[in-house]
């Protein structure tokens, strides 16, 4: 087996309408795929070369302790201010490391979403 790239990252959600208000309204993402199926609903957001998905399906349960995805932003301070203004729950941060600035927030189902900005000179 040869793995070439990450196809997508997905977060399970309970209420698709509520989740889309967060991902599209608060984070400003645009849905690139919206597919309803028997027993489920899947929405994708293409971001750069990757895809972030949210889904409702049997056996998929949101978890505050599950995996996280970090979204690279152009203006870290502005992103943090917008999240604070939207009363989004911060899990931790904002903080600075030698290579970046980051903060992790919670979506309406408690999933952890990172907001990230690399410092100049770091890929």
UniProtKB/TrEMBL annotation:
Looking at the record, the residues that make up the VOC domain are: 5-118
Q: What is this protein called?
A: VOC family protein
Q: Its domain of life?
A: Bacteria
Matches recorded under InterPro entries: Anthracycline_SecMetBiosynth, Glyas_Bleomycin-R_OHBP_Dase, Glyas_Fos-R_dOase_dom, VOC_core
Please name the PANTHER family in this protein's record: GLYOXALASE-RELATED, VOC DOMAIN-CONTAINING PROTEIN
């Amino acid at each position: 087996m040869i793995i070439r790239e990450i196809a997508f990252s997905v977060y399970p959600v309970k209420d698709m309408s509520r989740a889309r208000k967060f991902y599209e309204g608060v984070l400003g993402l645009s849905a690139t795929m919206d597919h309803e199926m028997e027993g489920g609903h899947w929405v994708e957001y293409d971001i750069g070369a990757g895809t972030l998905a949210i889904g409702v399906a049997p056996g998929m349960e949101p978890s505050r302790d599950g995996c996280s995805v970090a979204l690279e932003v152009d203006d870290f301070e502005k992103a943090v201010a917008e999240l604070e203004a939207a009363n989004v729950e911060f899990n931790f941060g904002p903080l600075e490391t030698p290579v970046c600035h980051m903060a992790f927030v919670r979506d309406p189902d408690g999933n952890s979403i990172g907001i990230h900005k690399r410092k100049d000179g770091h890929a």
